[in-house]
Amino acid sequence: MRIAMTGNPNSGKTTMFNAITGRNEKVGNWAGVTVDIKKASIKKSFNESDEKIVCVDLPGAYSISPFTAEESVTRDYILNERPDIIVNIVDATNLSRSLFFTTQLLELGIPVVVALNKTDLNRKKKTEIDINALSKIINCPVIETISTSKKGLKDVIDAVLSLKGKSQIAPFTQPNIEYSDKAAIAKADKQRFAFVGGVVNQVEKRAVSTHKRNTQDKIDDLLTNKWLGLPIFAVVMFLVFWISQAGPGVWVADWLTALMESGQEWVGAQFTDANPLLYSLLIDGVIGGVLAVVGFLPLVMVMYFLIALLEDCGYMARVSVILDPIFKKVGLSGKSVIPFVIATGCAVPGVMACRTVRTERERRATAMLAPFMPCGAKLPVIALFAGAFFEDATWVGPLMYFLGIIIIFFGALIINKITGYKARKSFFIMELPEYKAPSFFRAFKSMCSRGWAYIVKAATIILLCNTVVQIMQTFSLSLSVAESADQSILAAIAEPFSYLLVPVVGVISWQLAAAAITGFIAKENVVGTLAVCFVGLENLINTDELTMIEGAGAEVASLFAITRVAALAYLMFNLFTPPCFAAMGAMNAEMKSKKWFFASIGFQFGTGFTIGFVVYQFGTLITTGAFGAGFLPGLAAVTVFAIIIAVLCVKSGRKAKV
Amino acid sequence: MDLTKVDLCKEYVIKSITTHDAELEAFLFSLGCFSGEKITVINRRRSGSIVAIKDGRYNIDTPLAQAIEVF
Description:
The structure holds two protein chains of two kinds.
Chain A: E1 2-7, H1 13-21, E2 38-41, E3 54-57, H2 69-81, E4 85-91, H3 95-106, E5 112-117, H4 119-124, E6 128-129, H5 131-138, E7 142-144, H6 153-162, H7 182-203, E8 204-205, H8 215-223, H9 229-245, H10 248-270, H11 276-294, H12 297-313, H13 315-329, H14 337-343, H15 347-352, H16 360-369, H17 379-389, H18 396-419, E9 429-431, H19 440-474, H20 489-505, H21 510-518, H22 524-533, H23 537-543, H24 552-560, H25 564-576, H26 581-591, H27 594-624, H28 631-657
Chain B: E1 11-17, H1 22-31, E2 38-44, E3 48-53, E4 56-61, H2 62-67, E5 68-70
Antiparallel strand pairs in B: 1-2, 1-5, 2-3, 3-4
């Protein structure tokens, strides 16, 4: 049998879903975390019957008539797929709003179980709800639950089982009205709210009115303060990046890389008599490449942990509030902030989070710009270059994020010009969830599951890519063993692309080109491929500044044979070109427009190349007094890009006048 | 008067909401924000206001606060 979890946004549906199914879907303390349907079977410990129960987690909705894209997902699922039982998660702290949706669900004829969630918060506020009276009035079981501590969840499942095959009698039935008659609908909905108000009066006793100022409001005063709001946000984000990439994240990385290096040595020692070709394929290529990527795992995990804490405490909604006025100026909405912050973990969920942005243009623009925030997979790339070329300078990481934000702003302005957007009166409303102390345990779990996903990726896609890269650089086009890597298949394939990179790095390097290309499969591949291509690099990554040997960073730098300026330019090129294929797929799915999708890819390519070009050429001009190699062709390419954008802007400007 | 002019932390009753955006007004409705309902402005900044509707807190921007008339 199938049960559907429904309820208002941020009532705790996914937390409950995770608890009873053992899954680890994304949760957060703001409205609109879940944007898609998730299905899983209920764990045996919650379901003692022989009946197999499939639980369906739906995006939150305030009403059965949808307002946003994800709300219509919920409506369509309930009406078309007709689950056997509806579990309606009701936020006990906001009964007067939640029961509106509940009464709509009760009219569908499908048995409903009401899970009165967050009852612990009510107890703190001395709000009492008479669940027996409530259950009698609305004709369905009402069970007190606390999703976060799993309290009452077993009782919910028992109630679900007891209702199997039964029907539902609605306590309130909407009179027959013509659905085109707006006034009639409004009247019927007001009657519904009046009914709900009556119910709440009968069952709820509040000690403190919500319309009075409380401690939460004092925190809001500070965090959304006109002057302090932005600096506080900047400090918080800086701390997240600093702790993960310069502080504790690196200490853990040191320890882990040393451990893995000895593992690699041990494996190497087992195969000393092996065929040198196979030995190099296995030890240098496969293991070395993967270890180079896995070595950065602690940095990524620490960042995941910190972001999970941020998402859990209720701060994200406030960030939307302080950034909304600024984002409005460039034609985005405060809601775009959440996708951008999520994209610092991974661009795929970041792009998917765009669904909560209401207007289509803003949604597409957000999906197009979110991948500019450096994601977790780009972090190893940043860390590698920071370690190899900049002595692990603490400014490299934060600079990349800062640059990502600047690109997002300018990108949004350009999109406005091209789409002919005119500042119009736009309205913004954001629910402010209650603050809560973030759960370290859940952040830890979230970190582990994402860290595990990272390892799985390293052991599958990255491993496969490294193996292919290693094989391709071992053999020449005639399929014999290449005398040097320069005669290999890989060099032959990557070389044409290396010319395109000259304006960015100043040298023809097929290795760098190959790394940039494999980066589209997964950005960690940039590190993996460089480790494979530059023989010996993987030893240095494991032992550069991150770990032991002093001065190894310089050795890595000399191996690359590019200047520091070129390294910075190449790093930025990799960060700000289109994201990996998975993120591109997500962009395509969210934009629902081939035109927007291809324009986005083109724009991201143009941006990445332009930034790389400007940083390398002008950096070289400053450091050496002359432009670097490939200045003119690069300038030509950047000019063409600029002209295309200018033409598109002018065109839309003319259209707007007509 | 509209919500940008009312006293803080004082309960008012919504008289009308005029946004010329039927979808948004339907959404506000589902939150319990419609004529005849109570609303309180908890705090106000230049760019927006924090309001209490039913038992929830929301941030609304200034254009929306101006669109809500209360008495």
